[in-house]
Amino acid sequence: xxxxxxxxxxxxxxxxxxxxxxxxxxxxxxxxxxxxxxxxxxxxxxxxxxxxxxxxxxxxxxxxxxxxxxxxxxxxxxxxxxxxxxxxxxxxxxxxxxxxxxxxxxxxxxxxxxxxxxxxxxxxxxxxxxxxxxxxxxxxxxxxxxxxxxxxxxxxxxxxxxxxxxxxxxxxxxxxxxxxxxxxxxxxxxxxxxxxxxxxxxxxxxxxxxxxxxxxxxxxxxxxxxxxxxxxxxxxxxxxxxxxxxxxxxxxxxxxxxxxxxxxxxxxxxxxxxxxxxxxxxxxxxxxxxxxxxxxxxxxxxxxxxxxxxx
Length: 311
Ligand code: G3H
Ligand code: 13P
Ligand code: ZN
Hints:
8-stranded parallel β-barrel; 12 helices; binds 1,3-dihydroxyacetonephosphate
């Protein structure tokens, strides 16, 4: 099976009340950890690549790693550009074999967001590629751009029908209180998501796939390992998994996870170095990082996304 589109995945996920995990990839061990987990539980997958990942690993390497994962597992895997900032990067990924791109013009005005998204949609659809767009702004750090909580804004449900019909986008990322990075909610406060906004958006866009960014849960197990082996991550709080499970049963068809992968891999490598400071073969410590990613992704698929058995 070649790398696939998300169209069929989202249709089945919407009807089946589950979500597809969209996991950020930057190197071979991350791709292997994620795809081996998905193969164990027979789940479809989205692997996504940011501008920073393309700069780090290069387009051709990431493309071939994802193709190799598809050959190795036989799973339906979509390859998606995460947070495309302009037409040029979207075009480059479309021309370079991605099956899905995100144009993130959410920091622009409503009209400018529509104009840029529409331009990307026209080019993408001419080339058989689907487009994710965003309305509303998430707080947090992504590609070295930091959006403060004050500058973030929830999606306005009254805008979504006009936005989707004028742009022709295939899925829509909305802001309901999640944020990028490991520090999502203030320590001591109760995490809240605006499910009322999600409900109203899905009422206005029946059957239309919704995307949640900033959806890492910052699993205590990995934070504790990092803190026990060098410290520094003490008060990181993520999105509670029961909220993600609830979103997955609603109109949310794609759930983006990056920080949890970073934490799991870092936990494995730090733990390994603390136990074996004499090791210097990368295969020794990267194996542990990859094992923790496999464990994390399997747990997400089975206990949060509900996409196991759906490949
Ligand atoms: O939302 C952003 C993702 O976590 C990607 O992060 O741009 O540092 O690769 P990155
Ligand atoms: P996290 O930082 O919560 O993992 O979010 C990742 C993301 O939204 C990638 O687009
Ligand atoms: Zn994101």
